[in-house]
Amino acid sequence: MAKTVDPAHVRAAVLAVREWIEDDDAPKPPRAAIADAVRSTARTLAQDAPGGSVEVRVPPLVAVQCVDGPRHTRGTPPNVVECGPRTWLRLATGLDVFDGASDSVQASGSRAGEIARYLPVLRL
């Protein structure tokens, strides 16, 4: 079983990159800071919505399975949500709303949109 995500750590990780998340013109933070924020928020989603029917990918930093239902075990999952780190952090913090139709989010499968009810994982 995965280790429980510490909400205080998630908040600190996100606050460390907050300016970049909120401001298009802000300088990009160090990769390690972005990775920490992305991984901790994605793992929080997986903790809040346990299951294996949807895979959320933020390449190359993290992929988690979440949402109760049939578990995917081999090959390409039928329900996938994929986006870049900044887009994910904007979704995870409620600055953007997941609708599955954004140009910056690739969502496939009939259940991919179910992650919307678990977002945001942290409000700024």
Detailed description of the structure:
The protein is α+β, with helices and mostly antiparallel strands. Helix content is 32%, strand content 15%. A 4-stranded mixed sheet has the order 2-1-3-4. Helix 1 runs antiparallel to helix 3 (31-48) and helix 3 (31-48) crosses helix 4 (85-92). The radius of gyration is 14 Å and the shape is globular.
Secondary structure layout plus pairing:
Elements: H1 7-15, H2 18-22, H3 31-48, E1 54-58, E2 62-66, E3 80-83, H4 85-92, E4 105-108
Parallel strand pairs: 1-3
Antiparallel strand pairs: 1-2, 3-4
Helix pairs in contact: 1-3, 3-4
Outline:
It is built from four helices and four strands; from the N terminus they run αααβββαβ. The chain has 124 residues and is of the alpha+beta class. Helix 1 runs antiparallel to helix 3 and helix 3 crosses helix 4.
Protein traits:
124 residues; four-stranded mixed sheet; globular; alpha+beta; 4 helices; single chain
